[in-house]
Hints:
The structure holds two protein chains of two kinds. Chain A has one helix at 3-37, and strands at residues 41-48, 51-53, 56-59, 65-71, 77-81, 86-90, 95-100, 106-112, 120-125.
Amino acid sequence: MNSISNRAAPRRRHAFRRAALRLALALAIAGMPALARADTAGYTLVLKDHRFQPATIEIPANTRVRLTVRNLDPTPEEFDSFDLNREKVVMGGGQGVVYIGPLDPGTYKFMGEFHAATAQGRIVAK
Amino acid sequence: MLATLIIVFREVLEAALIVGIVLAASKGIARRGLWVAGGIAGGLLGASLVAAFAGSIANFASGMGQELLDAGVLFAAVVMLGWHNVWMARHGRDLAAEMRAVGAAVGAGRSPLYALGLVVALAVMREGSEVVLFVYSIALSDPGTAGPMAIGGLFGLGLGVAVGAMLYLGLLRISTRYLFTATSWLIVLLAAGLAAQGAAFLVQAGLLPAFGHNIWNMSAVLSERSLAGQVLHTLIGYIARPNGIELIFYGSVLTVNGVLFRLFGKAPIAVAARVPAGAPLPPEMPTKV
């Protein structure tokens, strides 16, 4: 006699969980940009002939920065860094923004994954 | 050629591992092959679409379209995996008993195979779109390398699929009695890892605070660049140098899924799993007689 209510329970809980997740996501997306983007220093990285210019960027440690990657090549590139845990596709002729940090002082390598032979660079946090 | 091999391998690996887990987790359920194959096909279609519209997607949401799409895809997979686990906790023991008795595929009428099919599709879509963009990028910058590149890509694909198959065959060595428990816990860890990845994309987009960088640094011990590191990254969400928010997402999803799994696992399964005669069944998933 309990079988029907027993079977309904996970569906109800699931619906609740999904609703909660949606709400959390919506709040995060709606509320955070203003918070996150305030007071963030900007840096620009240019990609040309599958090389980053400058190949080394110095940023302040323990501060979040806004890194704009401008791709002057006609080909798509993926800005990729294990050290920073970042990956972002930047289309040919396009640009993309990646938020980085706050970082401990140190050197963090990044690369253009699609042309890793030449597209190498590093971020030095001081 | 080698560069192509490595990149294609790395992208295929993640999707292949997920397919391996999904196949093991749905062992013995009728029509699972159809759902997984459909998931792969749908994922490939989705990957091509994402790659074709990568420019527009990137420009969406003030340049954060890719991150939002990636995070959304990851969180959707997390929910589907959680749903599968709740169902499995209630019916898995019954399923295993029936499989042992019958020794063949059982028609699990209400099994949420669509959830696993969608997980496969989302994984293939995410990783596949990067392969498509990479191949397109190389083809554009080095025309005339199509031949060696195709060979490298095929080898990468084959290697990735081979690792996924190894995982699947390895999981099948677990006896039927414990298989679903093992795959369910594996799915709990997988979902937690995917949630952490989703959080990382929202941090990258500046939508979530990082809550601390390098909470610990295990790069020297096990780098995510290494094969083992990457496999563990996919399977259990290993991150060599996590930030705070990734740990929060990982821990929350782990806790929620773990609690749900245990909670529903203790339900009176033998009663609940039997579909009473005459009970309405969803038309798309009729039980096998």
